[in-house]
Every structure is written in structure tokens, then in C-alpha cells.
Amino acid sequence: MTGKIRGISGPTVHVDLKGLKLFERVYVGRDMLTGEVVRLQEDGAVVQVYESTSGLGVGEPVKGAGMPLTVRLGPGIISGMFDGLQRPLERLRDVMGPFIISGREIYAIDYTAKWLFSPSKKIGDDIAPGEIIGFVQERQFKHFITARNTTSKKLSWIADGEITLGDSFARFEDGEEIMGCFEWPVRIPRPYRRKLPSSGALVTGQRSIDFLFPFARGGTAILPGGFGTGKTVLEQAIAKFADVDIVVYVGCGERGNEMAEMIEEFQTLKDPWSGKQLMERTILVVNTSNMPVAAREASIYTAVTMAEYYRDMGYHVLFLADSISRWAEALREISASLEEMPAEEGYPTYLASRLAGFLERAGVVETMSGAIGSLTMILSVSPPGGDFTEPVAQACLRTGGVFLMLDTSLAHRRHFPAINWFQSYSLYSKKTTLYYNDKVSPEWEKMQLRCREILQKEESLREIAEIIGIEGLQDADRLLMKVAGMVRTDFLSQNSFTEDAFSPPEKTFSIIKGILDFYDSELGKLKEKPSHVE
Ligand SMILES: Nc1ncnc2c1ncn2[C@@H]1O[C@H](COP(=O)(O)OP(=O)(O)OP(=O)(O)O)[C@@H](O)[C@H]1O
Ligand SMILES: [Mg+2]
User: Using a 6 Å cutoff on CB, does residue 232 contact ligand 1?
Assistant: First the structure.
């Protein structure tokens, strides 16, 4: 099915092609730029093009792909760096140099590379939909190959040993083949048997998070913070040290050089949990501010689909995006060029539901093969002017399970991570406390309560101290102020550029215990000598 371009306005292209479907992939122009149908009209369609449209002309050909925007899923994705349309950046560089040339398609999957397949099924076995038939070793992970049949069928042949992804891995009696890789539409969540309640803590190695605002596996966390409050540094620290199997990091509309530094660093650092190189468990999706805006909208879907694919194998996957505000801005730009009715601050009316639908892809699931996998999401939000009442922060607030408010005044005082301990919250506190009580110390919860209490009391004492001076306070109150200062500087502050960047739960616990033991012993001494100020 081919047609012609009738009009071009930025990345929005009007075409005269009939019979297209909403969200169908379209190849636009002589260079075959990738686009997606975003509106259907009686006499044609409106296509959102994900690559630069400069040089495109009216009358150039347009072709419908007959399928939606997809990603290729199969062995070889881990350690990969992709653009928002899942083109492998390293191979792109080899072919076209440092700048991406529009319209070139290079697949994320290398169909010629050889893999060693170890089958777990044999000829004659009945295979249910989604069942595992074997695995190939992808770095330190067993990459399970699953069947994608819709009804149970018998195997008539299965491979064993060396194989390429272009070959068939197995065949059913009716002739249907099982391939090692396949395409999946990015906007459709991958199937699973059922969703389970999020359970178990996700250890981040950041003391203020693990201790005060814990993350749960399969949960969602939102990191809103004004300019320079440490969103990127915190997200990258979590990506480095989180106790998960696989990390998918999306640089969404932020600075390219930050991403470049991260890539360099990840190639030298080790994962503290497995001892392997960090890059060996990481997938990067890069759509920085200098890359096409429209592809930014698609990039988070491309990334989350890859994350779901590994979750389906029973792995714990962490998805991080920096920042979701840039994604929302891309959505606003697309919506404006379609002349849709704007809602608050020009964002489309469907912003909140789109975002909620996206966050719904997180969770712990029983996969089609019966394994348990999880997908945890952490999204940073950059509200303009640090105003948390703006639509993107508000939409995130409604759906996120952890809300870490990054505070400009803490950042100014160089207290990092600048997590405001009064305005942040975690809905997973109860569940995860059980985990830490059990794994680290039964005193975890008690210490947590005391720590919160000390910070709260300090706040009320500070107002009094400002009026009467710290000397005017009672000894016990002065001691509390001192201890609260220790909690803030020695415990909650954590410099991401020193050895202290990663704090395992045992270290977190021993620091806070040290401070609270000191508090108790000083309180004991105060009780022994009667106070002179009454
Ligand atoms: N955990 C940390 N430890 C030490 N320094 C930090 C930490 N977090 C942030 N910083 C300091 O703050 C600076 C700004 O941090 P970062 O770039 O992460 O902010 P941001 O919120 O992402 O900013 P922007 O809104 O511009 O993207 C860093 O360059 C670093 O100097
Ligand atoms: Mg940043």
C-alpha cells in the first residue's frame, strides 16, 4: 500500500494513504523515515515521523508497514545502547559515523551471530503457550527461548547446539516454527499470567531511600526536583548499585554529555552484587536533547518493552527514565502540531491517563512460563521552576508508590541526595520493613521510627532555638539537636562521587545504630547529673 505526502509541518506529515490503522508504522519519503499514524481522516492520515524531516518534500512516496511500531526481542540486547527506535548506536556509528543519518534501518538483533542453544524440551513434547523450550547463554544470564503459539502443540523438531537467530529453533507438528527472536508492538504490554502484589525490598544502596523511603520490587518511584537538585546523579547511582538482575536506563531528552559520561563510567565500574562489569547487566536507550523530539515520545515505550521481555524470563528488572517531563513535553509538542484541544499548561488532556497507563506496566508478575519476574520503575520529573503543582508532577504523584521530593534548599546547602525527609513518602514502608527486619536486624523498624522522631523534634526545636538561641535550650534538647545534625550529615548525606556512593543495608544499619547508641549513652549521662537549667 503506497501513497504520497500532501503536507509537512515539522515532524507531522499529512499523507493521502487510505486504509491505514491508528498507530500503524509508516515509511515516509524516499529515505523511508519511520513514522506512526496518529490520526485518521476520511481522505488520508496524519503521521508522526520519528526522525528529522528536513529535506522531505511534498509528493514523496509513503508506505504503510501493515503493523504497529515494534521492537525486536531476542538474545544480544543486554549491554546494548539503542536510540528511541531501538537502532543499535554502536553499529550505527560504524556504518554512518558519529551522526545518525535519517531513514537507515539497522536491526537491534544481529541475525548472523552464533549462539549455543541448550534445549529443555524434546521431540513429541506438548508445548503450552509461553512455555520455555531452552536457553542460550547471554553474558551472565540464561536467555530463555519461549514458544509463542496460542494453543498447546506437539514439537516435531528442536535444535541443539550452535545456531544463529536467523535459524529456526524448533518446529511444531503443524509446521509452525519457533524463532529465537521476534517483533513486539511497543505500545502493547507483554502478556503475563497474573499480576502479584509487589513484595520484597529493592535495595538501592542509598541510605535515605533504603532506610526512610524504601523501594519495593515491582513498585514505582517518582523523583521530582528542580534544576540541579541531583536527579540525574541519584538515578545513575541507583542504576549502578540497585540489587536487581537487569537495568534499563533511558536518557530521555536530557544532556548528551551526561549520558556519554555514564556510558564511560559503566564500562569501568563493577556491579557490587555480582562482581561483573556494570554494563553487562545494563541496557541503555538514548534519546538525548539533541536527538529528534518525536522519537523521545516513543523511546520510553521501546525501553519498557525490552524491560518486560527480560521480566518475562523471571528476572528482576529496573527501569529508569531521566526525565519523564521531557517525554511529556514531546507529547505536548506532538499534540500541539495535531491542533488538539490543550488542557493545563498546554499538555494534552490525555497526559495523566497515558502516564498512568505507562506506570501500570510496572509490577511483579507470574510470567506465561510460570516464573516470577518483576519490573520496577523510577522516573525523574523536572518541574519547571521547581513548582510541584504542575501537571506532570501531579499526574505522577497520583500513580507513584514512592515520592522522593528533591529539595532545592538542601541542594544549595550541598546536602545530597537532597531528599526532603518531611515531604517524601513511600507506600511500601510496611512491606519492606519486614524484609529489612528479617535480613538485616530486628531493630530496623524501631530505629527507623526513632530516626523520624529525632528529625521531627529537631524541626520544632529549631524554631525555638532561632528565638532564644541554642544555649537557651535544655541539655536534653541541645543533645537532640546535635544528634539530629549527625543523622543529617553522617547518615542521610551520601556523596555519590566517593567510596560512600554505595551503602549496603548492613552499613546503613550500623551507621544509624552508632548514632543512636551515642544518643542513648549521652542521655544516660544527662540523667545521672541533674540539669542546672530549670
Ligand atoms: N549524591 C550526590 N553526591 C554528590 N554530589 C551530588 C549528588 N547529587 C548531586 N550532586 C551535585 O549536584 C550537581 C547537579 O546534579 P544533577 O545533574 O544530578 O542535577 P539534576 O537535578 O539532574 O539537574 P537538571 O535539572 O539540570 O537535570 C552535580 O553535578 C553534583 O555536583
Ligand atoms: Mg539532570
Answer: yes
